[in-house]
Amino acid sequence: GTDNSINYQSRLDLTGNSYIEVNRFTPEGGFENPETLTTFYPVKTAMVHSFSITEDYLIFFFYPIDVNPMEMFSSNFHIFEAVHWTDGLDTDIYIVGLKDGKVQHLTTEAMYSLHHANAYQTSKDEIVVDMCEQGHYALKDYLIREKLFNPPETSNMEYIPDYAFARHKINLATGETKKTVFINKINSVFVNMFDYPMINEQYRGREYCYVYGTSMVDYSRTAIIKKNLCNPTEDKFWYKENHYLSEIWFFPTPEGKSEDDGVIMTIAFDGEKKQSYLLLLDGFNLETVAIAYLPYNVPWTAHGMHFPEAQYDF
């Protein structure tokens, strides 16, 4: 690995056409002076929230869903009201070479995902991409205020195929893609229907076995899951009725002996005590390591990150 970071921007050229600029950020250049790795014009614009990286490639999925900026004013800047799905379009895949910037364009079935979990190469021609998929309709329906304020008192814990954790195998030589869904050996709705995936970052872009995440079923049933991609019989979850969980973080044990040797951390809310607490779980078995109730309540959180090496003077 390196200390470099990769990100992308959606930009407009002089004629108003949208293109993608992929940037590499280095410690020497800082965030002010990124290197432009490549640019490309996608077949269609799309709402893209995350992408994947392997040792040699970046992988972008452009879904048949986008935000119409002209509707932002009429929707009172409620962005999800301006989101539109287009039936009949495929999902475009763009494979970007990290070494030469070359872009390969493929297509696969129409689908949507907010968060990629990880990707890796099994050979010079095959890439595996794992991601949490959602029904595109959830972007509008899930955040309806009446639903948020009135979750069902009982849950049928129904598995919804549109929300499956899925694996996509991409053959660079033939252009073929194949999607599979992991077997649910423990018959829990949580372990195949989750989001906010987290892995041991030492395995980013490499073959791996474990992904952690937060499963939210019927709004009020939330669980932390550990999915074993190599042995589904070892899937696990942590769940307490009336406890509400935020996105998690995984901190590997220094010089750990295994991929799942580490601690999971999240901010939770105890619905019985009406109090937030810090929750630490063992990354190996999801047993509770520590609980620390907080002197104040913390709203639901997502997308934070700790960078122990960062040195900033504010």
Explain what the structure shows.
Strands 18, 19, 20, 21 and 22 form a 5-stranded antiparallel β-sheet that branches. Strands 4-5-8-9 form a 4-stranded antiparallel β-sheet, with no helix packed on it. With 314 residues, it is mostly beta strands. Helices cover 3% and strands 42% of the residues. The mean pLDDT is 91. The protein has helices spanning 138-141, 145-149; strands spanning 5-12, 18-25, 35-40, 52-53, 57-62, 65-67, 83-85, 91-97, 103-108, 113-121, 126-133, 165-171, 177-181, 195-198, 210-217, 221-228, 236-239, 243-245, 249-252, 262-270, 275-282, 288-293. It contains 2 helices and 22 strands.
Distance between the termini: 29 Å
Number of strands: 22
Helix segment count?
2
Helicity, in percent? under 10%
In round numbers, the mean pLDDT is: 91
Strand content: 35-45%
Order of helices and strands: EEEEEEEEEEEHHEEEEEEEEEEE
Overall radius of gyration? 20 Å
| Molecular shape | globular
Enumerate the spans where pLDDT stays under 50 for 5 or more consecutive residues.
none
- What structural category arises from helix and sheet content? mainly beta
Sketch the major β-sheet.
Answer: 5 strands, antiparallel
List the helices and strands and how they pair.
Elements: E1 5-12, E2 18-25, E3 35-40, E4 52-53, E5 57-62, E6 65-67, E7 83-85, E8 91-97, E9 103-108, E10 113-121, E11 126-133, H1 138-141, H2 145-149, E12 165-171, E13 177-181, E14 195-198, E15 210-217, E16 221-228, E17 236-239, E18 243-245, E19 249-252, E20 262-270, E21 275-282, E22 288-293
Antiparallel strand pairs: 1-2, 2-3, 4-5, 5-8, 6-7, 8-9, 10-11, 11-12, 12-13, 14-15, 15-16, 16-17, 18-20, 19-20, 20-21, 21-22
